[in-house]
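User: tokens in, sequence out, please.
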């Protein structure tokens, strides 16, 4: 019987815990229920003595009032803290709480205010750092590609846009392969923290590097591409220029003295065979002088004198110049004009020298039945031939100073072409394509 009564007595508390109401309401209901029981018990015990009964009822009411006041004093700061927590959830770190006059709660409020101030300061620092990083990426002289977690393009800075010939926003959230640049294959093979120096088309040199930064607890990869072509070529030219000048100085001094001796000897010698030998020696000295002068011309190449010229006319003249030589070797030289008139600011003499070297090399690479096609299009100039292809292992050395794959070559022709075209700020390449045609293109 007692167990049944106790169970009945606890049943309201169980129902109170199961109800989906706030903790504050539960607490108030609990206070009301508890004080109601006390008042009921005091009525049963003290009903015979009215004075004690009235005093006990007054005390119970005072207890209830004090409990409610204490609850309100505790509930108000917690409501403020809840409001602050909601502000933090909304990322608003400007809300601070005022002390309520209670030591314990004031300590809690002070801790909250310190925490919110620290969060606000850290958020401000992160915002400033992010803004600085964005500005740094945009202004960087190095091409930067930021990737997402799926290795797709997330951000491309202006330098990278210039390098890949794209506009802002193009190819975002797409894989690297859509850029369609020869350097992409090397970029895709890089590992985090790895750095390489690579050469494209035997001319353009790049330093590529892959790294990562932490973004919201995750590692986000990015790629840096620095073009070293101009610096390397300037250093290279300075080095071989010094060697050529030294060689030319020594050879010219020796040739002058030897020629003087040969001229005197020719006047004194009457024996025909000896006289012929002196003439051969003198002629060889002249050829050596011309040989050194060709090397020196590369170093002393003047800045281009730019004038508006018709590329149609320039190319037609060059084709006419070499057509006889090509026909003699059984090679068909074809001239294709895909545009009626195309003008460009060029130094005609220097560009003609480039075309002479390229056409000469093409004829030397071809045999009977081969073709050389000269094309002028909106994109630029292409000189193609289906003769001997460029060996793959030598492709990266084509524009290297003094390199030649010909037995009697001096490695000057393509070096001179490189200097002239770079001084004109033209893009160019020389490679054997997948269809077997070797193409020299100028854009």
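Assistant: Sequence out:
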């Amino acid at each position: 019987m007692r167990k049944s009564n106790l169970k009945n007595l606890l049943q309201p508390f169980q129902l109170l815990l199961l109800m989906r109401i706030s903790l504050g309401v539960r607490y108030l209901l609990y206070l009301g229920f508890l004080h109601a029981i006390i008042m009921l018990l005091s009525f049963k015990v003290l009903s015979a003595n009215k004075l004690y009964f009235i005093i006990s009822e007054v005390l119970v009411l005072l207890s209830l009032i004090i409990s409610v006041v204490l609850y309100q004093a505790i509930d108000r700061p917690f409501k403020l803290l809840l409001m602050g927590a909601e502000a933090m959830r909304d990322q608003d770190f400007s809300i601070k709480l005022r002390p309520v006059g209670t030591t314990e709660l004031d300590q809690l409020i002070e801790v909250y205010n310190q925490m919110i101030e620290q969060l606000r300061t850290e958020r401000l620092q992160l915002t400033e750092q992010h803004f600085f990083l964005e500005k740094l990426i945009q202004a960087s002289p190095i091409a930067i590609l930021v990737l997402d977690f799926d290795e797709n393009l997330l951000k491309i800075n202006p330098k990278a846009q210039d390098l890949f010939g794209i506009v802002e926003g193009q190819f975002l959230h797409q894989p690297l392969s859509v850029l369609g640049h020869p350097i992409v294959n090397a970029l895709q093979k890089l590992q985090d923290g790895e750095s390489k120096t690579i050469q494209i088309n035997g001319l353009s040199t790049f330093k590529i590097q892959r790294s990562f930064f932490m973004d919201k607890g995750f590692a986000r990869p990015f790629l840096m591409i620095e073009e070293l072509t101009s610096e390397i070529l300037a250093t290279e030219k300075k080095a071989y220029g010094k060697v050529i000048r030294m060689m030319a100085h020594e050879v010219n001094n020796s040739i002058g003295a030897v020629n003087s001796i040969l001229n005197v000897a020719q006047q004194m010698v009457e024996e025909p065979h000896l006289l012929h030998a002196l003439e051969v020696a003198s002629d060889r000295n002249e050829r050596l002088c011309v040989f050194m002068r060709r090397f020196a011309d590369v170093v002393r190449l003047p800045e281009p004198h730019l004038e508006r010229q018709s590329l149609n006319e320039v190319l037609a003249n060059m084709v006419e110049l070499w057509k006889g030589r090509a026909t003699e070797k059984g090679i068909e030289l074809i001239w294709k004009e895909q545009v009626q008139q195309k003008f460009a600011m060029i130094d005609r003499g220097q560009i003609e020298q480039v075309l002479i070297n390229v056409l000469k090399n093409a004829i030397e690479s071809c045999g009977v039945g081969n073709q050389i096609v000269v094309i002028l299009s909106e994109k630029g100039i292409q000189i193609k031939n289906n003769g001997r292809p460029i060996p793959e292992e030598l492709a990266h050395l084509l524009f290297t100073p003094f390199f030649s794959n010909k037995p009697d070559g001096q490695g000057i022709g393509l070096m001179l072409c490189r200097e002239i075209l770079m001084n004109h700020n033209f893009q160019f390449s020389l490679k054997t394509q997948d269809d077997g045609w070797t193409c020299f293109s100028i854009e």
